[in-house]
Amino acid sequence: MSVWAELTGQREAIAVLRAAAGVDPGRAGSAEASDSPASAPEAGGAGNAMTHAWLLTGPPGSGRSNLAFAFASALLSHAGPDGDEATDRQVQARTHPDLSVLATEKVIITIDEVRELVRSAQYSPSVGRYRVLVIEDADRMTERTSNLLLKSLEEPPERTVWVLCAPSDADLLPTIRSRVRTVRLTVPTIDDVAELLVHRDGIEPALAEQAARHAQSHIGMARRLATNAEARARRDETLDLVLGIRSISAAVLAAARLVQIATDDGKAITAERDAEEREHALRSLGVEPGGTIPPALRAQLRALEEDQKRRATRSLRDGLDRILVDLLSLYRDVLMLQLGSDAPLVNREREAALGEIARASSPAQTLKMMDAVAEARTRIDANVNPTLALEAMLATAVPAVAA
Asked: Where is the DNA polymerase III delta subunit C-terminal domain positioned along the sequence (predicted)?
């Protein structure tokens, strides 16, 4: 089966990367990077279809990482641009000797992590056609960290390929952008995502369509909503809370509850993994479960706990952002109803309640609320206290829902 088979909604981007993966490494030069949209697979001609550094951009949930690893599989395989099953299994397990991956679960990518990756880039491929280095969420690098990566992009070792992933090329330094070839992903359609859930995960079609619609074509979130009843319940509670606000005091209480929902959602994602990591660390240090940890080993466990705390911080922020995106979909639906648009509703199941809000408020009020949600996202990303940011946002909602 082709390594591209389970990707959805990115036909043009796949064409660009598949063509590049088909170039013989001996003919693949470090051609000057070009800002090539995915809609032009022939950009640059056959001679520079392959280059040493790529940037895959697209909105969250568009499948950037999945496409990056499919590309890595095709580059590493000796079987051609469609790859082979054995190599793909190694890539998916992150165990291929010629693949290095930097995927931070913290708020930022540290300079030490990039320094280690740059060091590994100097090794020649051992079994694959190339050495491939993937950086997920490359937008989480600080300027200093990006400059360290820049040196490696300027003088790439032979048969080394960098694949960076970010929401937008504007999220990276201009000097980085000038040394990579950009492939832009589009937002998959709801039908594409639903079809993927049905065929890949065996989800019932009606649930797959609902999950894809509620996730607004975010592939990862759609899968989670389709396979996790608790995630669906938390989303429903979020929308119910906001629809039920009738006063400032209710807005304050709702803000606290939304933070708790995001916290619970983050714990659901990280708790099991944290426990597994701790158990593995103790086992590797020779400590029996429940046994006393020798003082000499406590520093190593503290380092693990610090990493887990940083991951929990990012998980909370991601959970809050998911809530705010859901709220944006709610007010987007209200606006569509107010404007008499024929565009399909994201929250179709709540059309009656949304209609009441639409009749009780004006499009200007709805836009004001959407601006407040966007402002809350910006404040939380800037490390403002989440509860205060949500209280300020929801206070704006009171006139819209209580008028």
From this structure: 323-394
- Compute how many other C-beta atoms are within 10 angstroms of the C-beta atom of residue 115: 13
| Alpha-carbon separation of residue 207 from 197, 229, 232, 262 (angstroms) | 9, 11, 11, 23
Beta partners for 56?
A: 165, 183
Per-residue pLDDT reduced to its tens digit, 294-342: 776 677 677 767 776 777 777 788 889 999 999 999 999 999 999 999 9
- Tokens standing for residue 277: 């990591």
| Beta carbons of 52 and 160 less than 8 angstroms apart | yes
pTM of the full predicted structure?
A: 0.74
Q: Which residue has the higher pLDDT, 204 or 280?
A: 204
Taking a C-beta distance cutoff of 8 angstroms, is the pair 131, 123 a contact?
Answer: yes
3-state secondary structure of 183: strand
Residue ranges covered by each domain of the chain: 11-184, 190-227, 248-402
In angstroms, rounded to a whole number, what is the distance separating the alpha carbons of residues 238 and 255?
10
131 bridge partner residues: 160
Burial class (CB in 10 A: 0-12, 13-18, 19+), 125: buried
351 compared with 280, residue with greater pLDDT = 351
> Is residue 377 a contact partner of residue 324, using CB atoms and an 8 Å limit?
yes
DSSP 338-397: HTT--SPPTTGGGHHHHHHHHHHS-HHHHHHHHHHHHHHHHHHHTT--HHHHHHHHHHHH
Classify residue 9 by its DSSP letter.
Answer: S
| Interval 19-38: pLDDT, tens | 999 887 765 544 444 444 44
Q: How far apart are CA 287 and CA 5, in angstroms?
A: 44
Identify the CATH homologous superfamily for domain 11-184. P-loop containing nucleotide triphosphate hydrolases (3.40.50.300)
Residue among 115, 189, 185 at smallest CA distance from 148: 115
pLDDT attached to residue 271:
67
Structure tokens at 139: 């937008």
Q: Strand (E) positions, 89-208?
A: 99-102, 131-135, 160-166, 181-184
